[in-house]
Amino acid sequence: xxxxxxxxxxxxxxxxxxxxxxxxxxxxxxxxxxxxxxxxxxxxxxxxxxxxxxxxxxxxxxxxxxxxxxxxxxxxxxxxxxxxxxxxxxxxxxxxxxxxxxxxxxxxxxxxxxxxxxxxxxxxxxxxxxxxxxxxxxxxxxxxxxxxxxxxxxxxxxxxxxxxxxxxxxxxxxxxxxxxxxxxxxxxxxxxxxxxxxxxxxxxxxxxxxxxxxxxxxxxxxxxxxxxxxxxxxxxxxxxxxxxxxxxxxxxxxxxxxx
Length: 259
Ligand code: MF3
Ligand code: CO
Ligand code: CO
Prior knowledge:
Layout: H1 7-28, H2 37-50, E1 54-55, E2 68-71, E3 74-76, E4 90-95, E5 97-99, E6 102-103, E7 106-111, H3 122-139, H4 148-162, E8 165-166, E9 172-174, E10 181-185, E11 202-205, E12 208-210, E13 216-218, E14 225-227, E15 233-235, E16 238-242, E17 247-249
Helix pairs in contact: 3-4
Bound molecules: 2-amino-4-trifluoromethylsulfanyl-butyric acid (MF3) and cobalt (II) ion (2 copies).
């Protein structure tokens, strides 16, 4: 069931979204050569609790971490472990604080140990930018009357034109008091397909883009999702509100557009 958020609920979602954005900014600063995912996991717990919020991932369907940390060919849902980051690792941090009962969900992908873009392998940089810009192509579709298929179509078209692939099995999702609410927001699809968007809906857009083929598998730990062909995967995620005229990005970080 899709929930339409009231004015008060939207205000709470803005606060949760802003906290998620701030959390992601702070955790990304910790991604350095020699630092382990477990250290970031602990920092995420401490930072979030100090803000009076709770990390939603911990114990969510049994997930054993305070955030997801997905490295290189891990597509999503990476469990924070002791293995220290190496120079050139492709790292996604996905944070989801719950503030006053409402969730904010956002993620981003960076390369470890690169002072600037020019130090990154051009094909890896292209993968990161394709994932990020495809998310924005999807977000730009959002307005009352558009459909979830419009979002998926825009993302898939953008990514496939570059020559990369979109993971089909994991989707964006409604969000609010629940971590994963309706609607499902596919990152592939056709224009006009699926549920119509309405003012007051809140959901995520979070495409996972593989350098190689789109097929994935889930590890024996039941969480870690990897590309089948071992190719690198990048992802970006924002929590979005449908407004009367379009969208508002509830998890915008400094320098990112909000609407
Ligand atoms: N944050 C992820 C998402 O974007 C969900 C992670 S579920 C967890 O939907 F249990 F792995 F944390
Ligand atoms: Co999400
Ligand atoms: Co997320």
